[in-house]
Specification:
By secondary structure, the protein is mostly beta strands. The chain folds into two domains: 23-72 and 170-201; 76-167 and 225-308, no CATH class. Helices cover 10% and strands 35% of the residues. Strands 6, 7, 10, 13, 17, 18, 19, 20 and 21 form a nine-stranded mixed beta sheet that branches. Strands 1-2-3-4-5-14-15-16 form an eight-stranded antiparallel beta sheet, covered by helices on one side. The protein has a five-stranded antiparallel beta sheet with strand order 9-8-11-12-22, with no helix packed on it. Helix 1 runs parallel beside helix 3.
Length: 347
């Protein structure tokens, strides 16, 4: 769930819901449902949850009804940083593009699919490397046959980019609900799929409710932190903002380095993706979004940015080469460092 909350940090850009003096917020607050359901919080926020799903939003009262407003996602987002370790080249990490048809255009080049037709057997991270740093990136995605497009002007100092595609979710549409009492139980009916959930009898001291409140707190904090930048390691694993007591900023490499980095070197030797010793800060690049009704697939490049498939032809599939491969797994070797690579200058 923690990983999910960090991913959703990309997608959430606004804070909704203010503390409301209406006493009904306190009266109905709690968890409705079991393995799936909805949690209502006293501050006017909610969490719709289920298997691999946690959607946050706000709710308001209108007479006897409750109006639910899910936090909205931006279809495309770009975060950029200056990365001295890669010299004059550029790295672009693509996240979330595996799930539907999407396209990328660098400067005045032809737009091209991010993935090939019928792509499968995905193995993230997907990182595109190029010597030519784009000054403009246009990202496009088809939603119900309509092309939605976002245009980004890339600051010249950013040579390391995390590019995120948030596929629209069926859970992100507004819906309504109503809480009714049946005997000693409270029942929440919602218009989404015409579902109803019974309120749990757990109280504020229940461990399940405490965990839910902790998730909400982490989500709220992640949204707030994202305004000041997000943090990745060199393999684009997202981490919370590093604490100043545990990390120091190395200006030469533009990285936050754990003060215990050398002590943990052996531990992360075979787990590089989860290595949080070296983190780099990425700032959000603002974009302009529009709908392009003149889109013509015939104008696309025939070559996708990434190719991946199962079975026949799989040997041509993209493979991330950022992890260090050791010849003898039993022989300790030093991890590839990202702290000093000259010159010049950022996930």
């Amino acid at each position: 769930m923690k990983k999910y909350l960090m991913l959703i940090m990309f997608a959430s850009t606004f804070l909704f819901g203010q503390q409301n003096s209406d006493k009904r917020y306190k009266e109905i607050a709690g968890r409705y449902g079991g393995n799936d359901g909805i949690c209502l919080f006293e501050d006017g926020k909610y969490m719709l949850y289920g298997y691999a799903t946690a959607i946050f939003g706000t709710y308001t009262f209108e007479k006897d009804y409750i109006n639910f407003y899910p936090d909205q996602q931006e279809l495309f987002m770009i975060f950029g940083s200056q990365n001295p370790t890669i010299g004059n080249s550029t790295r672009l990490y693509f996240s979330g593009f595996e799930r539907d048809e999407s396209f990328v255009q660098f400067d005045n080049q032809k737009a091209q699919p991010v993935f090939n037709d019928d792509a499968n057997c995905f193995a993230s991270p997907y990182v595109y490397e190029t010597k030519a740093k784009p000054t403009q990136i246009i990202l496009s995605g088809l939603i119900d046959g309509t092309l939605h497009q976002s245009k980004f002007a890339i600051p010249k100092e950013y040579n390391d980019l995390a590019i995120v595609h948030n596929k629209p979710s069926r859970y992100e549409e507004n819906f309504t609900g109503m809480v009714k009492s049946e005997g000693k139980s409270k029942i929440l009916n919602i218009s989404m799929y015409d579902r109803y959930f019974t309120k749990s009898n757990e109280d504020k001291n229940d461990n399940n409710w405490k965990e839910i409140l902790a998730m909400k707190s982490e989500y709220d904090q992640a949204k707030q932190d994202s305004k000041n930048g997000i943090f990745f390691n060199k393999h684009y694993h997202n981490f919370p903002a590093p604490e100043s007591s545990a990390y120091s900023l190395d200006k030469k490499s533009n990285q936050y380095i754990s003060k215990n980095a050398k002590d943990n070197e052996a531990y992360f030797r075979n787990d590089e993706y989860n290595d949080n010793r070296y983190l780099r800060k990425y700032m959000k690049v603002e974009g302009q979004t529009n709908i392009d009704k003149s889109f013509n697939k015939n104008n696309l490049s025939s070559k996708s940015l990434f190719f991946t498939t199962c079975g026949e032809g799989s040997e041509k599939s993209y493979k991330y080469n950022g992890f260090t491969e050791y010849e003898d797994q039993n022989e300790p070797k030093k991890l590839q460092q990202t702290t000093t690579v000259p010159p010049p200058p950022v996930n």
